[in-house]
Specification:
The complex is a heterodimer of chains A (about 675) and B (about 160).
Chain A: H1 7-36, H2 41-60, H3 64-81, H4 89-112, H5 118-131, H6 149-156, H7 166-174, H8 180-189, H9 198-209, H10 214-217, H11 246-260, H12 263-271, H13 280-310, H14 315-341, E1 343-345, H15 347-350, H16 353-363, E2 368-373, E3 378-380, H17 381-402, H18 406-411, E4 418-427, E5 430-437, H19 444-453, H20 459-463, H21 467-473, H22 495-504, E6 508-514, E7 518-526, E8 531-539, E9 542-547, E10 551-556, E11 562-565, E12 568-573, E13 576-582, H23 583-587, E14 597-603, E15 606-612, E16 614-622, E17 636-641, E18 647-651, H24 653-664
Chain B: H1 9-18, E1 20-27, E2 30-35, E3 39-44, E4 58-64, E5 67-73, H2 74-77, E6 90-96, E7 99-105, E8 107-114, E9 134-141, E10 147-153, H3 155-158
Parallel strand pairs in B: 2-10, 5-7
Antiparallel strand pairs in B: 1-2, 1-8, 3-6, 4-5, 6-7, 9-10
Classes of the chains: A alpha+beta (about 675), B mainly beta (about 160).
C-alpha cells in the first residue's frame, strides 16, 4: 500500500522511523532474554511498552498494517505480563515472525513509502489469533497515538473538582500524566479530522489562560495502588500530585534499561532528542572538503618552511608561521570531528546476531550461547555496512561447522551449550573484530586433503604447508569443507568472498584454531576509510604509497642475501626466508634501476619481501578513488594527491600478490 | 556562425533555439567536435601519473581540482596513427557515464555553433574511428572563409562500460 506524506508529516514519519528502529533492534535481544527468563516482568513490561509506542506512532501516521501487528503483539504481552497466558516456544516463534513482519514493514516504509497490504498480513494475524485464542482480542480501537486500555482504566478513576467541563474531563482522562499545556500541544498536532471541535480547544485555552492546570481540576485522591506513598500524603500538590500510573512507570523505565541493557543503550534513548538526521551524502561532501583542506594545509606548511629557510626572519614571517601552526591544529581537529560524524557503534550490526544465532541453532538442533563484547566500539559507517554479510557468514559457519551437536559435545567432555563470542575493540588506529567459537576446531589435514582434491594445491605443497598456511586455503575461491552443502552456510558466498570483502576494506583476516577446542577468526579493520598512513616508496622514477598497516619491516637491500629458489627469488633476513619480488615486476613496469630497500609486507598469513628503489618516508594521505573507468585495477587501492599536487598511487598489496598467490602456496 | 546578415530576423530566432555549441580540437589532422555540454574543462601541461596493469589506451591519471581523473588516448583507443604529446599534453575533460574522463588531443581549436539540420551522415571511410561513435560530419567555415570538415564525436557512447 503506497502512502503519501506531506512535508510536515514526513518529519514526524522520520522521527517515527528512528524510534521504530530503536524499538525493533532492541526487541530481538529482549525476546531472546525473555526466552531464557519467560517470567521476567520487567522485560515483559518493556516489550509491551515498546509495542505500545510503536502502535501509537504508526496509528498517528495512519500506517494501518503496522498498527494491527503491533496491536496484536502488544495484546499478547499484556496477557503475558498479567499472567493470563504462558509463553511457549511456538508462541515465541510466532512473536519473532511478527517482529520480522514489523521490520519488513518499516523497511518498506523507509525505501518507498509503502506498507504491507492488509491482505498480506491477514494470514499472519489469523495465525496469531489461533495460537493466542486464550486472550480475546480487544476490538480495534481508534488509535491516535495514545489511548491505551490500561491507562484509560486508571485515568477513569480520576475524580474531578466540581464544575469542570465534560470535554476537558475527557481530555484529561485521555492524556493522563500531561499538564494542560501539553494536552493542548497534542491536540494541535493531531490531524485535522481527529482534532476535537474548535470550541473544546478554546475552552482549554481559557482554562490555561486562567492559570489553572490539571491539578486544580482534580481532587487529590488517596492512591491505593503502587503510587509511591510519599506522593499521596503530601499536602501541597507536587508537580504531578496524583496522576495515573504512567508517570512513575516512565520513571522506572530508565533504571530498568540500565540493568538489562548495556550502558550505551540508555545513553542512546536519553540522547534521542539531540540527534539530527543528516544525509550521508552531505557528510561525504564534508569529508571530501576536509580532505582537500588537509592536503592544502600540508602544502602550505611545506611552503612556509621553504619560505622560512630562504628568507631573512622578520616579524611578519614569524607571525605567518605562528598562524599557520594554529590553522594546522584547527584543521587536524576539524578532520577528527568530521571523521567522528561517520563513526557508528558496531552494535548496529551486532544487535542482529542474537536473533540469527537463536534461529540457526534451533534449525540445526544445536545449543549455542552468544556472547557480545565491545558493542560500543565505533567504526566508520561505510566499513560497518560492508561488514554485516561477512560477519553473518562467519557466525553461520561457526554454528554450522564449528559448534558440535549437544551429544557430541557432552561426549567430548565439553559443556552441552556451545559458546560463540563476537567481540570488537580498538587497537591504535585499527578495529579488531573477532568471532570465536568453542567448537571442534579446524582439521588441518582435512583442509589440505580437500584442497588437493580440488586441485588448488599439489600434494607436495600440502606436505610442506604450515597450519597457518593451511587456514589460508579456507579463503581461496572454490574451497568449501562442508561435506554436504547445507542451506545454512553453503549459499554460494564462500569464505573467499568474506576475505575479499575484508581486503577491499583494507583490512586483514586471520584464523586461529585448535582441534577440538575451537576456532577464532580475527579481522583487523581500519578505523576509517578515508585517511590512512602510508610509506612512500619509489620504483622506476615513480612514487607509490604502501599502506603502513601492511608494512612489517623495512631493511636495506643486500644482494648477498638474495637467492634464487626455483622460479622465485628469496631474501634472507635473520634466519627467516622471504619470497622476494621487486615492485616493478609486480606492476609490470620497467625494472632497470638498483634496488635500495626491501619492504617486508604482510599478505594474509605470509610475509613477503618487496624490493624498491627509493624510500621517501611516511605520510598520512587522503584516499581518493580512481573513478569507475579504473575501478578494478589489480594492485591499486586508489590514489592520493600529495602536497605539491601530484598524484600518487596507493598499493593494494593483497591484490598485487594475487596473481602469484596460487603458485606461492606451499613455497616457503 | 556569421549568418546574421544573410538570414531574416525571424529565422535567426528559430536558428538560435536549435543551434548546438561544440568544442573543436584536432586529432592528427582531423578536426573533431564534441558537444560543449559534455565538456567539463580544458586543461594543459598537467602531470599524468601512469597506472600499471591497465589497458594501453589509458595513459594514467591526473589531478583535477583534487579529484583523480583517468586520461584516455583516443588515438590509442581507435588505433589511429601518431603519438600523444605526453610532455605537454592538451586535455579535454568530458563527462561520461563512467565519471569524468580526460582525453588527450593535439590542439584545441575553440568553440563553434552549428545547425544540427546541416549534419551529414559520416562518410564511409571517415578518419579511422568506428562510425558507431560518430554522430555525423558538418562543413564549417572559419573567419577567413576557409572551409573544413568537422567530425562530430559521440563522447557519451565511447565511454560506456560495454564499449571499453
Amino acid at each position: 500500500m503506497k502512502l503519501e506524506f506531506t512535508d510536515d508529516m514526513r518529519e514526524i514519519l522520520e522521527e517515527f522511523l528512528i524510534e521504530a528502529d530503536e524499538i525493533l533492534s532492541s526487541l530481538d535481544q529482549d525476546l531472546i532474554e525473555l526466552e531464557a527468563n519467560p517470567e521476567d516482568k520487567d522485560l515483559l513490561n518493556k516489550i509491551f511498552r515498546g509495542m505500545h509506542t510503536l502502535k501509537g506512532g504508526a496509528g498517528f501516521l495512519g500506517l494501518t498494517s503496522i498498527v494491527e501487528i503491533a496491536h496484536k503483539i502488544e495484546d499478547i504481552f499484556n496477557q503475558l505480563r498479567n499472567d493470563e497466558i504462558k509463553l511457549t516456544s511456538d508462541m515465541m516463534d510466532l512473536i519473532f515472525e511478527g517482529v520480522d513482519k514489523l521490520k519488513e514493514a518499516i523497511e518498506m516504509l523507509k525505501e518507498n513509502d509503502e506498507i504491507p497490504d492488509e491482505e498480506d498480513i491477514k494470514d499472519f494475524l489469523e495465525r496469531l489469533d489461533a495460537v493466542f485464542s486464550g486472550g480475546e482480542v480487544v476490538e480495534a480501537e481508534v488509535v491516535n497515538g495514545e489511548g491505551q486500555k490500561e491507562e484509560k482504566q486508571s485515568s477513569d478513576d480520576i475524580e474531578f473538582v466540581e464544575g469542570v467541563d465534560e470535554d476537558i474531563k475527557e481530555l484529561i482522562r485521555k492524556y493522563p500524566g500531561k499538564d494542560l499545556g501539553e494536552i493542548l500541544e497534542e491536540l494541535i498536532l493531531l490531524p485535522p479530522d481527529e482534532r476535537p471541535p474548535l470550541e473544546v480547544i478554546e475552552k482549554l485555552e481559557k482554562i490555561i489562560a486562567e492559570g489553572k492546570d490539571v491539578k486544580d481540576l482534580i481532587k487529590p485522591k488517596e492512591e491505593k495502588k503502587e503510587e509511591p506513598p510519599a506522593a499521596a500524603p503530601e499536602p501541597e500538590p507536587a508537580p504531578q500530585p496524583q496522576q495515573t500510573e504512567t508517570k512513575p512507570e516512565k520513571k522506572e523505565e530508565k533504571p530498568q534499561q540500565q540493568q538489562q541493557q548495556q550502558p550505551a543503550k540508555k545513553k542512546k534513548s536519553d540522547k534521542k532528542e539531540e540527534v539530527i538526521r543528516v544525509d550521508v551524502e552531505r557528510v561525504e561532501v564534508l569529508m571530501n572538503l576536509v580532505g582537500e583542506l588537509v592536503l592544502d594545509r600540508n602544502r602550505i606548511v611545506k611552503l612556509a618552511s621553504g619560505l622560512e629557510a630562504s628568507c631573512e626572519s622578520t616579524d611578519t614571517i614569524e607571525e605567518l608561521l605562528d598562524s599557520i601552526t594554529g590553522m594546522s591544529r584547527t584543521v587536524s581537529d576539524l578532520q577528527d570531528a568530521v571523521m567522528k560524524l561517520r563513526m557508528q557503534p558496531v552494535k548496529k550490526i551486532f544487535s542482529k546476531f542474537p536473533r540469527i544465532v537463536r534461529d540457526l541453532a534451533k534449525k540445526l538442533n544445536k545449543k549455542v550461547n552468544l556472547v557480545l563484547e565491545g558493542e560500543d566500539t565505533e567504526i566508520d559507517r561505510s566499513i560497518l555496512d560492508k561488514l554485516e554479510d561477512p560477519l553473518i557468514h562467519l557466525v553461520r559457519n561457526a554454528i554450522d561447522h564449528g559448534i558440535e551437536p549437544p551429544e557430541e559435545r557432552l561426549k567430548a567432555g565439553k559443556p552441552e551449550v556451545g559458546t560463540i563470542k563476537l567481540s570488537a575493540f580498538q587497537e591504535g588506529d585499527r578495529i579488531i573484530i573477532a568471532i570465536e567459537d568453542d567448537g571442534r576446531g579446524i582439521d588441518v589435514e582435512k583442509v589440505k586433503r580437500k584442497a588437493v582434491e580440488k586441485g588448488l594445491i599439489s600434494p607436495e605443497q600440502a606436505e610442506n604447508m604450515s597450519d597457518k598456511e593451511a587456514y589460508e586455503l579456507l579463503f581461496m575461491p572454490g574451497f568449501s569443507t562442508a561435506e554436504q552443502i547445507s542451506d545454512v552456510s553453503g549459499r554460494g558466498v564462500g569464505m573467499d568472498v568474506v576475505a575479499s570483502t575484508i581486503h577491499s576494506l583494507r583490512g586483514t583476516i586471520e584464523v586461529e584454531s585448535e582441534l577440538g577446542k575451537g576456532t577464532k577468526f580475527i579481522m583487523k579493520l581500519p578505523l576509517t576509510v578515508a585517511i590512512i598512513r602510508t610509506l612512500m616508496v619509489g620504483a622506476n622514477q615513480r612514487i607509490f604509497a604502501i599502506p603502513l598497516y601492511s608494512v612489517v619491516e623495512i631493511v636495506r637491500y643486500e644482494p648477498e642475501n638474495v637467492k634464487n629458489i626455483g622460479q622465485f627469488k628469496s631474501f634472507m633476513l635473520r634466519d627467516e626466508v622471504y619470497l622476494l619480488f621487486s615492485l616493478n615486476e609486480l606492476f609490470d613496469i620497467p625494472d632497470t634501476d638498483e634496488k635500495q630497500f626491501i619492504v617486508i609486507v604482510r599478505v594474509g598469513e605470509k610475509n613477503i619481501a618487496i624490493a624498491v628503489e627509493e624510500l621517501f618516508g611516511e605520510e598520512e594521505i587522503v584516499i581518493k578513488p580512481l573513478g569507475k573507468l579504473l575501478e578494478n585495477v589489480q594492485g591499486i587501492a586508489g590514489a592520493t594527491i600529495t602536497g605539491d599536487g601530484k598524484v600518487v598511487l596507493i598499493v593494494d598489496t593483497n591484490s598485487l600478490i594475487n596473481d602469484k598467490k596460487s603458485q606461492l602456496v606451499g613455497v616457503l | 556562425m556569421s549568418d546574421i546578415e544573410v538570414l531574416g530576423l525571424r529565422e535567426i530566432e528559430k536558428e538560435v533555439s536549435t543551434e548546438e555549441r561544440l568544442i573543436t580540437f584536432y586529432l592528427n589532422e582531423e578536426l573533431i567536435g564534441v558537444n560543449i555540454k559534455d565538456v567539463i574543462k580544458i586543461t594543459k601541461d598537467v602531470d599524468i601519473t601512469p597506472v600499471p596493469k591497465t589497458k594501453e589506451y589509458i595513459l594514467g591519471v591526473m589531478n583535477l581540482r583534487g579529484n583523480i581523473i583517468p586520461i584516455v588516448s583516443l588515438k590509442k583507443k581507435f588505433n589511429l596513427s601518431g603519438e600523444d604529446n605526453l610532455e605537454k599534453p592538451m586535455i579535454v575533460v568530458v563527462e561520461t557515464e563512467l565519471g569524468h574522463i580526460g582525453i588527450t588531443v593535439d590542439r584545441v581549436e575553440g568553440a563553434v555553433n552549428i545547425n544540427p539540420d546541416e549534419i551529414q551522415p559520416p562518410p564511409m571511410n571517415s578518419i579511422g574511428i568506428d562510425p558507431e561513435f560518430i554522430d555525423g560530419v558538418i562543413m564549417i567555415e572559419d573567419a577567413t572563409g576557409k572551409k573544413e570538415l568537422l567530425t562530430l564525436l559521440n563522447i557519451k557512447k565511447i565511454f560506456r562500460a560495454e564499449n571499453l
